[in-house]
Amino acid sequence: MFVLNGALFGIWASRVPAVAEKIGLSHTELGILLLALAAGAVCSFPIAGKAVDRVGAVKVTKLIAVAYPVSLILMSLAPTYATLGATLFLFGAAHGAMDVAMNSWGAEVERRVGRRMMSSFHAMWSLGAGLGALSGYVAVQLGAGLFSHFLISSALISAVTLYAAHIPWVSQSIVQTDAPVFAFPSGILVLVGVLAFCAALGEGAVADWGAVYLRDVVGTSESTAALGYTVFSAAMVVIRLLGDRITTHLGPVVAARFGGAFALAGVVCVILTAPVEVVLFGFALMGIGYAVIMPLAFSRAANDPTIPAGQAISSVATLGYGGMLLGPPVIGFVAGLSTLPVAFGLLAALAGVIIFVAGSLR
């Protein structure tokens, strides 16, 4: 399910330019539409969390896994700005709801098996996103249109992953008739949410500004600039595959503090405006540092002793996605007032916050 969720998002991300060209969108209009996607995700979190607690994570995950590719296909058929915005909202809602449900299911697996697995699950999301992006490259090379690409690729990945997910697993459900649909994280989960917020803001900043930083500040070529997010993502996948062993050996608190330290060191390498090799090394260190934070935050939320798993994960996810959404505009705003290296310096402060609040994962 993590592979499916990542792959469908990667398929969409790989064809954003084609979607914008089809409707004739300006950069401003595209930015507003991307906010519709994010709004759909954030709105779905509390609803999905309540559904997980009432019905069970497995049923909710599989149900959304069927609806999610449909929303992707509908996007390729949208003829106007308004209809594209509506389908993007649905796509974001399906993506976000499935995120909450599958993380809840992953936490159940961890408890049943008796060992940490969440980091590996998130590595599978990254793998799926890469496969989805690769399908976009192939589609462009073959001259495939949006509809045929979205239909064929989503059908193939859905068939394989839904077949693999057809296992006899029964989730526990908790009926809470008086529970609110949305509950902001409380108690120690506030700090867990802050942890997720800091890591997600860093991820979003690197994704949207890494290439710009390399081109405008370091002075690299366009092709070299693309390597920034590439090395960041590659480092993140590798560490997420090893993350469960690391966390089991060190414990979640120490693992998160090491993550914050690596992220801090990476930011320092980047803002020194050293040779491009050092800056790329800095992005790799940042990928290493952020890799384990979100899996640890979701795992801690799902195992909270006082709040049901679905509600806890949805509240932490809201803060996490808030960080990912705020990251790019905050970096841009600060860079406009000063410089891009100064803006990236904010990420160093947030890495320090990760180190400071890591105790909330205990």
From TrEMBL:
Question: InterPro entries from the entry?
Answer: MFS, MFS_Transporter
Q: How does it sit in the membrane?
A: Multi-pass membrane protein
Record keywords: Membrane, Transmembrane, Transmembrane helix
Transmembrane intervals: 30-48, 123-140, 146-169, 181-202, 222-242, 254-274, 280-298, 319-337, 343-361
Among the GO molecular function terms of this UniProt record, one is: transmembrane transporter activity
Name the PANTHER family for this protein: BYPASS OF STOP CODON PROTEIN 6, INNER MEMBRANE PROTEIN YBJJ
Q: What is this protein identified as?
A: MFS transporter
The record lists the organism as Roseobacter insulae
